[in-house]
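lol ok so funny story. i was supposed to be doing the assay writeup but got distracted and ended up predicting the structure for this chain instead. priorities right. anyway since i did it might as well share w the group, maybe its usefull for someone
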Amino acid sequence: MNEMPLASKPTGLGFSELWRHKRILGWCLMIFILPINFGYEAASTGNLLAIPTFLLRFGTPLPNGLREISTYDQQVLNAAFTCGLFAASLTAGFASDIIGRKRTIVLASTICVAGIFIQGFSTSIMMLFGGKFVSTFGFGLGHTLAPVYVAEIAPDSIRGVCLALVNGMIVIGQWLCALVGYGTSHIQNDWAWRALLLTQLAPPGLMLIFGIFLLPESPSWLIIKGRREQAAHSLLRFNGPNFNIENQITMLETAIEKEKAEEKENVSYLDCFKGSNLRRTTIVCVMFLAQQVSGVGFITGYLPYYFTIAGVKNPIGIVQISYAVQLLGNIGSWFIVDRVGRRPLVVHGMIVITVTLLVIGGVGTIQNDKTAIRATVALMTIWGFLYQFTLGATAYAVGGETPAVRVRQKTYAINLMFTTLSATLVSQVTPILINPSSANLGAKIAFVFFAPSLIICIYLYFCFPEMKGRSYLELEEMFQKRIPARQFKNYISDAHVDSLHIDEKEDQVARNTDSSTIDSAELIGETIL
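and the output, tada:
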């Protein structure tokens, strides 16, 4: 097909569209409950280290009379998060393909609850490690699966908003952990740190109830398994009684059949790197790699430490403000991700983030200046807002909608494994770069993140396509035909033309029906007269 303006494609997203799909938005929020634990757990170790009774229970005494958690023990606790997440990435694809999306989420919630209880009643660092590993494996299954699940049920018009919600839930989890940590730090016994850990039971507990009694199975998974009637019932649960079931099922079946025509054998992880799937997998992995190399681990995880060593007054209070600003940025992205599109937010957002890193690094070269320190604090808060407004939220939309239907879960699992490995590397290097006894770069660490971010900007500019408002059938066609990234926006797909023809036929039938009704009425009137 030739390129031409997509006049008939939806170009904007208003409140009326969100309200029309409020039922789907509610289901998406339910599916995204477990990612709250992702954010909470990611911030929990840093908060535990600030609770005096935790240091008294597990720390070692220092010559000055204070206590600290040894470097080795801190590394053990940090490793529990990355190891559990990596194991979940390996398992999620197999589990969800075999037992389904719903049952995997129920299983994930159960495992997460067990791990949290182990943490809350730990008597040693290794027992705490075991509890963290188990709970991370549990919510990691849910975190890996949730964007895929949502991508399978969200309408094309609000798919970006639905997928962007997950990042908001992660930020909420980080903020809740900081708030609970601040509140429990004043308790003068072991319940100060036990309460911080056991508070995590709320999200998986709710998910267990919702998952068992309310959550329907993924229609896409049911279609793949040949359960057409169950898929129709699931679509009704998700979308309401007035939803056009046959149209949606036909689209899903057509997309899956197209993929089966290219892949005669059983789907494996290797299929994510074959044919057009290689391009899709690369786009997803680079999107989440961009998050790590842009410095999100430093901004979200090391701000309290950096503010402390930089001599900022009330660093914990400043961090609370920073998290609030980040959450506002994420909420703002919900209203533009399907209006502006993915490409402007990702490409232009990454460029602005990269330039901001350069500015932060430059200000950081000014030594022992209170104005410069205040400037870096402000710039890092602004960076957090820009990140959540653009790359932070949009990455999950891209991660959920880019992979092909039959390999979507496996592609996302590969991406999460790749992201976990890169995050582990960044988290191991960052303390060396910032610690006063090591490189002591301070804000100049932004220069380190600037270089790889610049490379990512170049890739995204030339290789990242616009997928706003496209059905999975259209995306399948465009990737298979190897349409260049910057032509995606204006490309008229065969699937879109076919849908227009169907709509025209339906309109014609309606007009003919109305015309026949009018003619009959006129004939009856003439007869009476």
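The two ends are 56 Å apart (CA to CA). The domain at 20-243 is CATH 1.20.1250.20 (Growth Hormone; Chain: A;).
back to the writeup now i swear
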